[in-house]
Write the structure tokens for this entry.
Amino acid sequence: MSQKPITLQTLLEGLNRDLAHEFQAIMMYRLYASLVTGPMRSELREFFSGEITEELGHAQVLADKIAALGGTPTTTVPPFELTRDPKRMLENVLQAERETIERYKERRLQAQELGDIALVVQLENIIAEEQVHHDEVRQMLENWPY
Ligand SMILES: [Fe+2]
Ligand SMILES: [Fe+2]
């Protein structure tokens, strides 16, 4: 049985789910930067803070696209774990980035199916940036000292 063709409504719902998780990433990086403890606080604080600009850029692309398609951007931020433990923070961030990449891959296929090549290109650029975030955090967790 073939899958149902994707509608604009389905794409808008997906883009809003993506936007909500970009808001989550912005909050996660901001609060983790403030809360992080331990001997690597200074370095991790800078790393977390540094991610915010790109996540804000992703939120802008999504909110602009949702508005252009006649949709209503979400104001929802999905909950996430607050902790002061640096390793736990990095594990939470790694999982969030992994799930985010999977969502964007699905969105890219939907955009392609709808023939919105401009959105395909925008999503591919976002995927490339999320992959860098993901790989960086994975390498930070390798040989974690404690
Ligand atoms: Fe992002
Ligand atoms: Fe990211």
